[in-house]
Write a structure and sequence with these properties.
Layout: E1 6-8, E2 28-44, E3 48-49, E4 62-63, E5 78-91, E6 95-106, E7 113-125, E8 128-135, E9 156-168, E10 171-184, E11 195-205, E12 209-219, H1 229-236, E13 243-244, E14 247-248, E15 250-262, E16 268-276, H2 283-289, E17 291-299, E18 307-316, E19 332-333, E20 336-337, E21 346-357, E22 360-372, E23 375-379, E24 383-388, E25 392-405, E26 410-422, E27 431-443
Antiparallel strand pairs: 1-26, 2-5, 2-27, 3-4, 5-6, 6-7, 7-8, 8-9, 9-10, 10-11, 11-12, 12-15, 13-14, 15-16, 16-17, 17-18, 18-21, 19-20, 21-22, 22-25, 23-24, 25-26, 26-27
Length: 445
């Protein structure tokens, strides 16, 4: 099926999870249908892999607007439908068991299947949380494009332990929180069963400033370089300890983020995140070439007539962002990058405005992107340097999302987008166009 280059796309990000949970009874409770969503998608879209002949990459996955920040849902060129059903049960607020089942059907990228998209058991006691199973996760201050783990990632399988924000006894206006997870990444992976763990710490100052840091460590799997068992696993968190003939035994990624709220300025929030694939002796060279950068501005209380919110994100990714020469499917889960959907050596400027009229929300947006075809060399003396200047792929995207609450329990979303791709596949003179549609009807009884 061929669709016009400007078609319909609905964002379902706001419908990805259930509405705010109602208070639970103090004893056993069951919610057999906590949410139901009927989804429809169609796209005439040029989905290109991150790795192309003009610029090979050690990274699984592809660039496709219909797939970005959709938590791993079926997407891309073609037509598909899906039904998602969420259920929960538990004991008071102490224990929650939750599932999301999805039945889908359609063309190749929307292959007919029935999967358990979410399934987890969560224990909560005061500020402590322990969770086991499959669930989605996003880290950092970004509205959309977090650099470490974002809504672009498919739900992850593993164990999470969390200390929710608690006030420091000697400074009650400062709160401290911790998160740790250990996941088994889903295929495709170069080494089936590769593990990924994350440690994140965050300080909140006076409910205005947030300072956080995250570290991802990827290692192991069938046939992967040996990391030295349990003791080696622990030691790898403090430095590279195993070098083998097959290469390094781990893949690291490190980030720091800062968010500042100024509610007096129309609910303003400014944030910055930097993530490193590698650090070098030539530190500023590493900041320039190796690091990913994300700068964002959120105005959450504009109140200019119907114009309520404005979001701006400027993002640039490093030359090997989320790549690795040994774990050459990169920082991915189920074929989706864990962090930014850009992949390596990309730049994006994204703007979105929200307009409200009663129960109706209209969100026009625009995005400009460029992907570099440059090739690089590196050493410990000079750091990273360009060896071959390659072509630049340019993308211009334009669209609008809509949402309307039909009743207290029923919501409908929809939207439009169009995309022009210049120098597609990093080949000068190649031009492609994309468009698609996505709609969602969601019921939260």
């Amino acid at each position: 099926m061929r669709l016009p280059s400007c078609a319909i796309l609905a964002t379902v990000a706001s419908l990805a999870g259930p509405a705010a949970a109602a208070p639970r009874p103090d004893d056993l409770w069951i919610d057999p249908l906590e949410r139901a969503a009927l989804l429809f998608s169609a796209a005439d879209e040029y989905d290109r892999p991150y790795s192309v002949p003009a610029r090979p990459r050690d990274l699984a996955g592809f660039i496709a607007l219909s797939c970005e920040y959709q938590e791993g849902r079926p997407c891309g060129d073609g037509v598909g439908t899906a039904l998602e059903l969420d259920s929960e049960a538990g004991w008071g607020s102490l224990l929650t068991a939750a599932t999301r089942a999805r039945a889908s059907a359609g063309t190749d990228r929307y292959a007919s299947q029935l999967i358990l998209d979410r399934a987890y058991l969560r224990f909560t006691a005061g500020p402590f949380l322990l969770q086991i199973g499959r669930d989605a996760l996003a880290l950092g201050p970004a509205v959309r494009a977090g650099l470490m783990v974002s809504s672009n990632a498919a739900p992850q399988d593993g164990i999470r332990a969390q200390l929710k924000p608690v006030a420091l006894p000697f400074a009650p206006d400062i709160r401290f929180s911790l998160l740790y997870f250990l996941d088994r990444l889903r295929d495709p992976q170069r080494f089936h069963g590769t593990l990924l763990d994350c440690t994140r710490a965050q300080l909140d100052f006076w409910n205005r400033v947030q300072l956080g840091g995250s570290r991802l460590l990827m290692l192991g799997g069938d046939g992967a370089p040996d990391y030295g068992g349990f003791s080696g696993f622990i030691l790898e968190h403090f430095g590279r300890t195993h070098e083998t003939a097959a290469g390094t035994a781990e893949n690291n990624r490190l980030s720091f983020d800062l968010s500042i709220r100024v509610p007096e300025l129309r609910g303003a929030r400014l944030y910055y995140e930097i993530a490193f694939e590698d650090t070098r002796k030539a530190f500023w060279n590493s900041v320039r070439y190796d690091a990913d950068h994300l700068v964002g501005i959120e105005l959450a209380e504009l109140k200019l007539g119907a114009w309520r919110r404005l979001f701006i994100e400027l993002e640039h990714t490093g030359w090997v962002s989320q790549e690795h020469s040994v774990f050459n499917t990169g920082m991915t889960n189920a074929g989706r990058t864990l962090g930014s959907a850009l992949g390596p050596d990309g730049t994006s400027l994204w703007l979105r405005a929200d307009f409200e009229a009663g129960r109706f929300v209209l969100s026009p947006w625009v995005e400009w992107l460029r992907f570099s075809g440059d090739q690089y060399g590196s050493d410990q003396t000079r750091g990273v340097f360009v060896t071959v200047v390659g072509p630049i792929e340019h993308r211009q995207r334009l669209g609008a999302d809509t949402q309307v609450a039909l009743t207290q329990s029923l919501a409908l979303s929809g939207g439009v987008f169009g995309e022009r791709i210049g120098n597609a596949d990093l080949v000068n003179g190649s031009t492609k166009y994309s468009g698609g549609l996505r709609a969602a009807l969601t019921w939260t009884p």
